[in-house]
Amino acid sequence: ALGTGGYVSGPVLVGARLMGIPGLAVEGNRTPGLTSRAVARMVEAVAVAWPELEEFFSHHVPVSARVVVTGLPIRRELLEMTRQAGASALGLDPARRALVVFGGSLGSRRINEALVGALRLMRDDPRLRQLQVLHATGRQHPVALGPDEARSIAPCYRSLPYLESEYAAALAAADLVVSRAGASTVAELTARGLPAVLIPWSGAAGGEQALNAEPMAKAGAAVVVADADLSSERLAVVLRDLLWDDERRARMAEASRSLGHPEAAERVAELALDLAERYRRSAEGSGGRSA
């Protein structure tokens, strides 16, 4: 039984424990969630995304359990999509810089307003007319640069409610990403080696998004702007510093890639299969039915 940290996985892992079925917990945040903390003593292994959690969980699991740094699994298509293919799927030019902005699964009014305001503040920069901007506003916060204004400020600006099938293409085509700092987002950015402007959501439990962003900031892979400090003026300064500095973005990309775990899905799968095989052998050895 494999649980990925959400609260719904807790009862499943507890049930597996009561039935004698091995459990594997996967924790992607740098601060363990309540579910991961609760089930740590009930599972045979914990897969973590960050090395520092190896030591944390080693004090919270049985002696016989394993804690393995695997990284957080991401979809294979996010790794396989090429820049050329991603740009083509979105109608972008792979030879031009592309800025991708999104605010998490529900979107973010604060990020949307800051981006639109920043573009307005940068309107006198002629380079902006060559910049491709892909802005996922979220369905609940459709704050976007209107088409008439976009033609005069950033003709290559495009907004859409949500990045669904376009998400892999957007990351493949991106030169810079502005986003929140959820565990999955950070795993995806680092697996692809993307430089980022991270705005951790202040409402995240235990400040987990700020903690997720720390390694990227320390490695020089991201510029972190606190939610409370986010403004159009602040974002405009950061974008001016990064968008036109190809060498700095290249260094950020290399630092981001150094933190990535593109093989995380395979490592978690191998760990799960190993637990299942041990369970099967144990069941056969005790005369029970094999799993």
Q: How many helix segments?
A: 13
Tell me the total number of β-strands. Answer: 10
In which order are the strands of the major sheet placed? Answer: 7-6-5-8-9-10
SSE series: EHEHEHEHHEHEHEHEHEHEHHH
Query: What Rg do the Cα atoms give?
Result: 21 Å
Question: How much of the residues is beta strand, in percent?
Answer: 5-15%
Describe the sheet with the most strands: 6 strands, parallel
Roughly how many Å apart are the termini? 12 Å
Poorly predicted runs of 5 or more residues = none
Average of the residue pLDDT scores: 92
Q: Give the fraction of residues assigned to helices.
A: 40-55%
Q: Any idea what the shape is?
A: elongated
Secondary-structure content class:
alpha/beta
